[in-house]
Amino acid sequence: MADKQKAGAFDIRVVIALLIGVYGVVLTILGIIADPAEVDKADGLNINLWGGIAMLVFAAIFVTWSRLRPIVVPAEPAEESAAE
């Protein structure tokens, strides 16, 4: 039986979490430094701040999911059988 290893950084969930996390950080920073006139345009709701926080939570859930249930791949590719 071949050894098995985790996909690690090549797991698509980690890539998605990284991308959404970067966008979440940018939106959170924009929400913190938002001009009150722009917040008033959204009926007093700081959409950038809440959207950024939601994206950071989503990214954290994806990273947690990939750590708790990792994708297991064979250590070596399966050898092809000879044509008969």
Strand content: 5-15%
Q: Helix coverage percent of residues? A: 55-70%
Helix tally equals: 3
Mean of all residue-level pLDDT scores: 85
Structural class: mainly alpha
Summed up, what is this model?
By secondary structure, this protein is mainly α. The protein has helices at residues 12-32, 36-41, 47-68; strands at 4-6, 72-74.
Explain how this protein is built.
It is a single chain. By secondary structure, the protein is mainly α. Helices cover 58% and strands 7% of the residues. It is built from three helices and two strands, in the order βαααβ. The protein has helices at 12-32, 36-41, 47-68, and strands at residues 4-6, 72-74. The radius of gyration is 21 Å and the shape is rod-shaped.
Main features:
single chain, 84 residues, mainly alpha, 7% strand, rod-shaped
Topology:
Blueprint (H helix, E strand, L loop, with lengths): L3 E3 L5 H21 L3 H6 L5 H22 L3 E3 L10
Antiparallel strand pairs: 1-2
